[in-house]
Each structure stands twice: as C-alpha cells, then as structure tokens.
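Please go through this chain and its backbone structure tokens and walk me through the local backbone shapes. Keep your notes short.
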Amino acid sequence: MTAINTNYKNDTSSMEAIEEQLKNIADAGFSHVQWGHDWLGEYIYSNIEMVQIKRLLSQYHFKVKGIHATEGGTRYEKGRLNFGYRYTNRKDYTSLNEYTRLAGIDLIKNRVDLACMIDAKEIILHMQLPYRELRENKEFKKRYWEQTFKSFDELESYCKTRGVKIAMENLLTPQNDQTDQFDRLFDRYKVDFMGFCFDSGHGSLVGLEDHLFFAKRYTDRIIAVHLQDTDGIPPELIDDDLAVLTHDKHALPFTGVINWDELARLVAQSPYELPVTLEVILAGDTHDKEISLLKEAFACAEKLNKMVEKYRK
C-alpha cells in the first residue's frame, strides 16, 4: 500500500487534467491518494462534483488518505508575501469579521462533506498564524483566539457526526509561535476530533536545531503526514518568508536533510494508520519521465512503509 497527493504535478482546475493525474498515479502502482486539489483558495465543491470525484477514485480503485482542506487563501501585505499578518479574504475561519468567519466555516464544512463522499477519515487544515500581529497587539491576540475557538467549537459536532477528524498541519511559521498554537488547540480539543499532520519538509525549515521537533512533541496526535524532503535553509534566511517558501521543495524522501529512520520510528509510535502519504512535486518533461518519477516516488513510499512496520513489530 502506498499513498501520494493527487496534485503532484499542479493544481489544475480541469477535471480532465485531474483524471489524467489520477491515471498516472494508478499506472505507477499507488493504492491510495490524498486529495490535494483546491488546497488553497475559496473554491466550493458542488455536490455533483463530489459525485464525479468519487466515481473517478473508484474507477482507478483508490482508497483515500485524507483531503487537504483550505483555510481560504494566501497572505499578502502590500503586494508581498507575508505570513505574519492577517488575511483579507472573504472566507477565513479565524477572522474577526463574523460574516467572514462563518463563511470560512462553510468552506471547511464543504471539505468535510467531500471527505464523507469519498470515505476519507480526516481533512488536513492550515492555520497560518498572523504571528507578527499576534506578537504586536494583545487585544488582537485575544480576539483572534476567541474567534478561532468559536469556529472549532462549531465544527466539532459537524465533524464528529460525520466521522471526519481535522488534522492541523505544521507550517512555515516560527517554531515557538507554532508550539503555542498547537498547545492551545490540543489542550482544548481531544484527539477524537483534532489531530496533527506532520509535514516533514516544513519541519526541516522551521526546526533548524531539530527537524523533527513537532513530530516528537505531538507524536500522540499524528493522524496524517505529508512526507517530503528539502535541503534545509541557511539560518540567515529564516526570517524571510519568501525565502523559506522557496526552500520548501516537496522533494522525494531520502534526497535531503530529513532523518527518515528517526521519523519512521516516531510515526510507528503514533496513532497514524499506514500507508504513509507523500506530498511531493513531480514534473516530468514527457509522459514517460512523469511515470518514471511517480514510480520512483512509489519505491520511496514502499521503503518508508517497511521502515515504519519494522518499528511497530
């Protein structure tokens, strides 16, 4: 059993192009996928689209390792990428604007509904902290967390009645800020509703002293993984959001700085259910090259599964 993100090549909105990617994944031997399309932005799936996605997944005999949900968009401030400040989007479950917050909840519920349709057990969710604003403004921090908790409180019963969990993902935000974030969330919500998605590449770019810091701290919460490799990042670039994002390579495991044996041991100790899930970017110049890269990814996933299984015995 092996799993990979459906958007390994791009985030195209064409269903025909998505089907082509699904066929390539199947031809490379994968048994599972994580639905990764529309992970960013404010797109709402209609019910008939969900039916079509279910039929496509069934056509290629895939089981589903979660859905990468969307939190609403990308942060820009004065035309420049900046993770440290608030969204200006129309759907954001952390927004201080109540209508925007409620619209953000509807967006997440849409992904929960898709999860139900395609038999996924969890949705993976970003919560990109406006960490600079949170540091600078105590009143904003108070209101931000009130709104965030209100949203998750409202989502908890919706998720539980549908048998879908939320897995919060570690992102490209400074380690201390994220630690405070996850500690707050996991102190409030139990693992039967909210777990953790460990992204190994993100961990390598934030935890300069320990790439696996978050996997170690929240081992008992790991219900999803995004396994990818990077070359790390020079310490002098760590405060440059664009530089950090550029170093987020989503490369195949075993090609960068991650200690995969240690990570396999941590995954084995966690509640995570195999197979492991790759979240990689693979773009070949030709169809044959693309299939070759997918088969290489398949071999990496098989190797990681065996490493985890070894530590579970």
About this structure: The radius of gyration is 19 Å. The longest strand covers residues 63-68. The chain is about 45% helix and 10% strand. The beta strands are 3-5, 32-35, 63-68, 76-77, 80-81, 122-125, 165-169, 194-199, 222-226, 277-278.
